[in-house]
Design goal:
- By secondary structure, the chain is α/β, with parallel strands linked by helices.
- The protein has one domain: 3-Layer(aba) Sandwich (Rossmann fold), CATH 3.40.50.300.
- The protein is 48% helix and 15% strand.
- The protein contains nine helices and eight strands.
- The strands form two sheets. It has a five-stranded parallel sheet. Strands 3-4-5 form a three-stranded antiparallel sheet, with helices on one face.
- The structure holds cytidine-5'-monophosphate.
- The site of cytidine-5'-monophosphate (C5P) has 14 residues, from helix 2, helix 4 and helix 8.
């Protein structure tokens, strides 16, 4: 028996490569669901920081991950019913989420939560291992990257626009540290899937990046989208 699954587009890549923004626009355009998988790791980091669990106590973190009451609705992230969408965007949560994401059991526990979001008419999933581990059978896989100084500048602009007081050097250090940790970990490292389209958008704006991905989409799925 052949089971047909909803279509999936995966967009993986390093920190601040623009994958979240692009994934959101594409999911809106197609009317497909959006999975920002980083928000699940961030929600767990948020729960850890707001408990008395140490970031190195992986037994307790795994128990917390198993009981995590997380839901994602319309791009907003809820923990135990509370909207934590804005609260999980801090640099501290970025760092803690990347530390806990290196644990095999944590990843395994969070895998089902991510896969359970797959439904019709389709899913756009962004993260680090969407095309390699979570949805290896996705029809279209993109690996979006950009030069680190450009990614740091983009993250800086994002944070400044939200009224945060930030320093570009520490942002760059934070991105480099996270990239290295994500790429060097044993389980689900940040690497392009063998069948991913690698797209460096260092000199592209959002519209240009989007246009390339939508061309790939049309080539794969046919010409129709909203
Ligand atoms: O994408 P975002 O920056 O929100 O992700 C936060 C952290 O969660 C990343 O630095 C990474 O360590 C982890 N993550 C992951 N696998 C994913 C998504 C995020 O390991 N699929």
């Amino acid at each position: 028996m052949i089971v047909e699954l909803p279509p999936i587009i995966t967009i993986d890549g390093p920190t601040a490569s623009g994958k979240g923004t692009i994934a959101r626009i594409i999911s809106n355009k197609l009317g497909w669901l959006l999975l920002d998988s980083g928000s699940i790791y961030r929600a767990l980091a948020f729960a850890i920081i707001n408990s008395d669990i140490s970031v190195s106590d992986f037994d307790s973190i795994e128990t917390l991950a198993s009981n995590l009451e997380i839901s994602i609705n319309d791009g907003n992230v809820y923990l135990g019913g509370f909207d934590i969408s804005e609260k999980i965007r801090t640099e501290e949560i970025s760092r803690v989420s990347s530390v806990i994401a290196s644990d095999y059991n944590v990843r395994k526990i969070l895998l089902d939560k991510q896969r359970s979001l797959l439904s019709y008419p389709g899913l756009v999933a962004d993260g680090r291992d969407m095309g390699t581990i979570v949805f290896p059978y996705a029809a279209l896989k993109i690996f979006l990257t950009a030069d680190i100084s450009i990614r740091a500048q983009r993250r800086y602009n994002q944070l400044i626009n939200k009224g945060n007081v930030v320093n570009i050097t520490s942002i760059m250090d934070n991105i480099r540290e996270r990239d290295e940790r994500d790429a060097d970990r044993l389980y689900s490292p940040l690497i392009p899937a063998s069948d991913a389209h690698i797209l460096d958008n260092s000199v592209l704006d959002i519209e240009q990046t989007l246009s390339i991905i939508l061309d790939l989409y049309k080539y794969k799925f046919g010409p129709s989208y909203n």
